[in-house]
Amino acid sequence: MNAKAAALPEATILFEDVTYSINGNPSHAIIDSISLEIHAGETLVLLGRSGSGKTTLLKLINRLLLAEKGEVRVQGRSTAQWDTIRLRRGIGYVIQEGGLFPHFTVAQNIGLVPTLEKWDASRIARRVDELLNLVGLDSREFSARYPHELSGGQRQRVGVARALAADPPILLMDEPFGALDPVTRAELQREFSSLARRLGKTIVFVTHDLREALLLASRVVLMQSGRIVASAKPQEFLQIDHPEVEAFAASLSTFNGTGAARDAVPGVSA
Amino acid sequence: MSPWQFFFGHRAEILEATAAHLTLVAISMAIAITIALPLGMLIVQRPALRNIALGAASVFQTIPSLALFGFLIPIPFIGGIGRRTAIVALVLYALLPILRNTYVGLTGIDPAVLQAAEAMGMTDRQILWRVRLPLALPVILAGIRTATVITIGVATIAAAIGAGGLGTFIFRGVAMVSDAVILAGAIPAALLAIAADLLLAALERRLKVV
Q1: What is the pLDDT of residue B16?
Q2: Tell me: the pLDDT tens digits for A72-116?
Q3: By the CB < 8 Å criterion, does A145 face chain B?
Q4: Residue A258 in this model has a pLDDT that exceeds 60
Q5: Cβ A223 vs Cβ A182: under 8 Å
Q6: Under an 8 A CB cutoff, do A116 and B120 touch?
Q7: Is A71 exposed, middle or buried (0-12, 13-18, 19+ CB in 10 A)?
Q8: What is the Rg, in whole angstroms, of the alpha carbon atoms belonging to chain A?
Q9: What is the mean pLDDT of residues A37-65?
Q10: A62 in contact with B, Cβ within 8 Å
Q11: Which helix (H) or strand (E) holds A32?
């Protein structure tokens, strides 16, 4: 459908009729002919149920997976043509539970990409301090700690700081706040929302939580069975006439205590 | 003759045998680690090789040690009477625990951590040396510890094929029907095993972060 030869200059990430399936079996397509433009500076939230393909779509961007049909372009170049290592070092990646290296201190975790990029030690130390400050952690207190000495919320803060270390233009976040308790989650969502606005990075954020999507997104893209079924600004998203949008909207009312589907939201019972 | 009298009377000889024993163990362990550690790293990448390597190492473990020494004697180059044959047998015994633990340690790492490493643009080599190996090290060391304790014990039997060490006293004591002489070999061997176990356990704890 979208077969433009060259990407628009502002399309930082471009999916062109991309299909991805397990073992190349087209009847098990996880991503089914998706075309999507993601613009510089936008916070795009991929919303969907488990198994809808949102994490797969994310992994196609930094080439943890490679599209079998169609093309994924990052900054105008197909991920198949990028040098994988260079591509990934220019893209921050945050996952659930942080994925921090348990044998590295907080400072070593955050400084990893700068270390790989052979920055000198004093520059790395300055950058680590700056980033810890940015994510609201006292560097004197936290630099020398190991991940197992941190709370879940602190680990996620370190995860965000680590992803930002080499100042990548693109940030991918895969349910980064998914494993946190509701109070800490709300706190991190608020802080991240303002941080994202200040940073001006292109952010692709995966979640199954509609409230989170509406809070953080400049655009919400809803996925179902490997396809995009809705795409809108957060203010307009709930007005879309689509059964999957309504299903998600119904989950939202649960938070207000009015919905019948209380069982569908584990972890928020009284 | 009481054991104490025998110990005291032969202390120089016992000390010498202990040193020979330790040398035998140290050489065997060094060779076993040199073989098993890289092999363990290799079979993580080569599933076809994995079953062959682990299977072969398991087979060596099932052969009774005295029989293994016997089997090796007639083999040219590695066989014969003496230390060389004993070292070959001890290496074969020590392979399995190190190989298996290296494999288990390298493959038992949290997939989220490995994916993060990959996503941050680490090369395969960097992931192996900076993430997989350091995280697997306590498990690998536990394998080395098991192998060391086994080797110290099995090495006493090496005296049967003329390799020296503390087993010399044990075999001599059996022939003389003398508890004192047997204990002169058995007690230092047991102490060596306990010391090695404690020492390596302490090292293992230091390396474990979580």
Answers
A1: 93
A2: 999 989 999 999 999 999 999 999 887 899 999 999 999 999 999
A3: no
A4: no
A5: no
A6: yes
A7: middle
A8: 19
A9: 94
A10: yes
A11: strand A29-39
Percent of chain B past pLDDT 70, that is, above it, reads 99
Identity (one letter) of the amino acid at B179? D
SS3 assignment, position A219: strand
Chain A hits for B122, CB-CB cut-off 8 Å, are 112, 116
The CATH number of the domain holding residue B37 is: 1.10.3720.10
Nearby residues of B165 by Cβ (< 8 Å), 6 or more positions away:
B17, B20, B21, B24, B155, B156, B158, B159
Per-residue CA distances from B116 to A102, A162, B33 (Å): 12, 11, 30
Q: Are A88 and A63 in contact (CB under 8 A)?
A: yes
B153-176 b/e (C-beta count within 10 Å ≥ 16 → b): bbbbbbbbbebbbbbbbbbebeee
Determine the Cα–Cα distance for residues A137 and A43; give it in Å rounded to an integer: 24
Domain range for B59 is 3-207
Question: How many C-beta atoms surround the C-beta of residue A136 within 10 A?
Answer: 15
What pLDDT is recorded for position A75? 92
Please tell me which of the candidates A86, A87, A95 has its beta carbon nearest to residue B116. A95
| Per-residue model confidence (pLDDT) at position A259 | 43
Q: Write out pLDDT tens, residues B160-207.
A: 888 889 999 999 999 999 999 999 999 999 999 999 999 999 999 888
- What secondary structure letter does DSSP report for B132? I
What does the domain layout of chain A look like in residue ranges?
40-63+84-256
CA distances B158 to B35, B81, B137, B152, B184, Å, are: 21, 10, 30, 10, 16
Q: Assign domain A40-63+84-256 to its CATH architecture.
A: 3-Layer(aba) Sandwich (3.40)
